[in-house]
Every structure is written in structure tokens, then in C-alpha cells.
Amino acid sequence: MPARTEITAQKSEMRQRMIAARARIPARTAKRAAQEISRQFMGSIPVKKWDIIGGYWPMTGEVDTVMLLEALAEQGHKVTLPVAKKRGEPLIFREWRPGLPLIRNPELKIQEPPKGAQELTPTLLIVPLLAFDAAGYRLGFGAGFYDRTLAALAGKPLFTVGLAYARQQVGYVPREPHDHPLDCIITEKRALITAES
Fold first, then answer.
1. Going by DSSP bridges, is the β-strand pair 191-193/138-139 parallel, antiparallel, or unpaired?
2. How many domains, in total, are found in the chain?
3. Region for residue 76 given its phi and psi (left: phi exceeds 0; alpha: psi -120 to 50; beta: otherwise)
4. What is the CATH number of the domain that holds 178?
5. What would the pLDDT profile of 6-45 be if each residue is shown by its tens digit?
6. Cα distances (angstroms) measured from residue 9 to each of 13, 80, 96, 139
7. Which of 27, 37, 117, 194 has the most CB atoms at less than 10 Å from its CB?
8. With the C-alpha atoms ordered 139, 145, 151, 156, is the resulting torsion angle positive or negative?
């Protein structure tokens, strides 16, 4: 296995390349892809009545999840969004429903449910990513929030689903011991159940 500094450099190079590649996706193409990803999710992921969905509110370039989260909420599922309390700590999740005003975290620039929203632990976690491979390994922005969150939820019932554009797939995502594969990745072309899940 390559040295940690080499893996870090490989991740950094891939991160910059994939940010640029994702930024080149036309808005209309991204919108159509998000609609198809939502359809693929609803047709492929066996969401149980008691599942608590951990979603995310899309940032620039990420797959737009709003349609999917609204559809899951309309079906009666509890939907949550991540809240970043401090750098270096795992995310927590607060309940969200359509129409609930969100608060912008000024430091991390993500939209979060207000403090009064109920804190819940997801059993199905939807994860954003920059790149993924066929084994389900993902490359994120490098802040480590989802790595720490997945580690904190280890041993609890949890199914993880990455959402991505098909063009974000790469042959191999550089990985370290703390990296764990997702159970499934949904693109506009298919649902990939990973080989290692």
C-alpha cells in the first residue's frame, strides 16, 4: 500500500480534477440527472417504514436531493439533515420536513435544520461525493465529516447510499484504513450495489 503522504497527494489531485469535471456539467443535464437519480433511488432502495433517512441539502455541484427528500417525506418517512457542530466531530442529524426553514452554517456554508428540530439517528444515510469506484469507495471534499460520522455509527443498523453523476466514477479511489465503502451508489444510469458491502 502506498505511504499515507502519497495517498493524501493522490486524493488531493483527484479531488481537484473531479471538482473541475463536475463543474462542467451543464445545469439542464444536472437537473435531468437528479430527476433520474431520484427515480432510481425510489425503485432500487428498499426503504422500510421505520427507517430514519439521513439526507443532505445540496451544495454547489452536488446532486440535487430536494425532490428525493420531499418524496420520502411525503411517503411518511422521517427525514433528517446533517448538522456540523464542530470541525473534527461527527455530524448529527435533525429532523426536516418540506417547508421547514433552514439555517445556513456560516463557517461550513451548509444549510441545516434549526436547533429546535428533533435530533435523530439515521438508519439509511444518503451521502454526497466527488468520486467513487466500483467497490463503493468514495472521495469527499476532505473535511472528514462523513468518515467520522460513519465511524461513530459503526455497529448500529445503517445502510449507506452515495448519490453521484455517472461521470464521477473512476477506476480506483485512493483509500486509507479509515475509509469504508458505501453499500450502494445511485447514478442516473444505475444503482450499484457494491462488491464489498
1. unpaired
2. 1
3. left
4. 3.40.50.10420
5. 898 999 999 999 999 999 999 999 999 999 999 999 999 9
6. 6, 34, 37, 13
7. 37
8. negative
